[in-house]
Amino acid sequence: MKPLSPLKGLVLAGGKSRRMxxxxxxxxxxxxxxxxxxxxxxxxxxxxxxxxxxxxxxAPELFPGITRxxxxxxxxxxLGGILAAFARHPDAxxxxxxxxxxxxxxxxxxxxxRARAPERAFTAFTSAYDGLPEPLCTVYEPTSLPIxxxxxxxxxxxxxxxxxxxPGRVKLLKLPExxxxxxxxxxxxxxRTGLAP
Length: 197
Prior knowledge:
Layout: E1 7-12, H1 34-42, E2 49-52, E3 67-69, H2 78-88, E4 93-98, H3 106-114, E5 122-126, E6 133-140, H4 144-153, H5 159-164, E7 170-173, H6 187-193
Parallel strand pairs: 1-2, 1-4, 2-3, 5-7
Antiparallel strand pairs: 4-6, 5-6
């Protein structure tokens, strides 16, 4: 069996949060900004945690212990952050988590990391709503990079679509109870989850 590549962590926080009306990475559900909560949750599972954000997004004193990564190309959304991560460490696998998952728990990450399979390019949970892969709490192995680059060359920039189009390369896991990957995109999502920042 092929050995597992070293695992790095990536918190995706570069979105403009237009629907929410304020930066989702800075929402405070657990006593500190959500991006910081996500980074601290990733830390026990990875060698190093990176924060994917826009160059001018955060003051230097914010998130001081987290190395920042900036997209190499604008307009790619989450895929831009993932590509920037691979540009930094192409031989590493990446545990990628969006910053807007306040219900995510260490137990969910532990299940994901333990399920890694070196013969698969991606390890992901199925959505609680449609059974399709959830790409923003996923392990991207180094072998996923050529797949991502080929999709990018064809104009496909949606991570979920990339996973859907490569079912044989994805190890899919059943999502634990409690919808831990429910994201917070808009004010009405706060009511649905029962959380208040």
